[in-house]
Design goal:
The chain has 275 residues and is of the alpha/beta class. Helix content is 32%, strand content 26%. α7 crosses α8.
């Protein structure tokens, strides 16, 4: 009697697993690296499941942003907002525009394939490039757009995939991690302040450190304290920066929300210079 776990999972269309040693599974992934997996409620044989799984593409070289981006531009926030931010949607999270709206920005969210000319025609004060799925090196169309954004020298902010595209546009390289960063408690050190932030992360690719060292305009601003990987970059010559993690994370942690304020401050400063 009563409301069973099985009934709850079925009602919410959730998949549960039982009868396996999940710690052993975690250790296997830790040693062997990220891999595709399959969970089935149907009574397939192991070989049958392996055949189905073999048809799932590997993440290396996979371009997925065009599958999840908005189909048409849309505007958020009032027309009389003091700052206008053009956001390139490669898989944007709702909280990001929300956080920019809270910082006196009007945000126009554009599809990932939008030409730079169309973005610039809206006359934004700053550019934002979003997170998104897949291999950053495969999103070559957006990398070209980011290059053109940076050439304008307006304030630029990238999160996650946007961070990786910022690095690629500047001439650095990305790579597929052995195991990605997933979770809400990753320690990141801000190299400018020396402070540690607890951050929300969800990525399987990262920016290659050696290539950044050979890219004169880029400086590393944040590192992951678990594995030393790059978590933040900034340009030495223009108001452009990016982070690998999610400062907008909802419901939290909120340690890195200052980055959105930093972007707002850069836009404010750039507008004051033009005035």
């Amino acid at each position: 009697g009563g409301y069973s776990l099985q009934a709850f999972l079925a009602e919410h269309n959730l998949t549960g697993i039982s009868g396996i040693d999940t710690r052993a599974l975690v250790k296997h992934v830790r040693d062997k690296g990220t891999m595709n997996a399959i969970v089935s409620t149907a009574d397939y044989s192991i070989t049958g499941l392996q055949e189905i799984l073999s048809e799932v593409p590997q993440m290396d070289g996979l371009e997925l942003s065009s599958v999840v981006t908005t189909q048409a531009p849309y505007t958020l926030g009032p027309d009389d907002a003091p700052y206008k931010v053009a956001a390139l949607d490669l898989g944007i999270k709702e909280t990001i525009p929300d956080q920019l709206l809270a910082r006196n920005c009007q945000v126009r969210v554009f599809p990932g394939h939008t030409s730079f000319e169309e973005l610039e025609a809206w006359e934004p004060d700053g550019y934002f490039v979003s997170n998104g799925p897949g291999d950053p090196a495969a999103v070559s169309y957006a990398m070209k757009t980011v290059e053109l954004m940076l050439a304008q020298r307006k304030p630029f902010f990238g999160i996650c995939l946007g961070h990786q595209l910022f690095a690629l546009a500047k001439g650095a390289q990305t790579y597929k991690m052995h195991t990605g960063h997933r979770g809400i408690n990753h320690p990141v050190k801000n190299l400018d302040t020396g402070h540690c932030e607890i951050t929300s992360q969800n990525h399987g690719f990262a920016v290659d450190q050696d290539s950044v060292a050979e890219t004169p305009d880029l400086k590393v601003t944040h590192i992951n304290l678990n594995d030393g990987s790059i978590e933040g970059l900034a340009s030495q010559s223009q108001p452009a920066f990016s982070v690998q993690y999610h400062p907008e994370a909802s419901p939290g942690p909120h340690d890195a929300r200052y980055l959105l304020t930093q972007f707002q401050n850069q836009i404010q400063a750039a507008k004051a210079t033009l005035a």
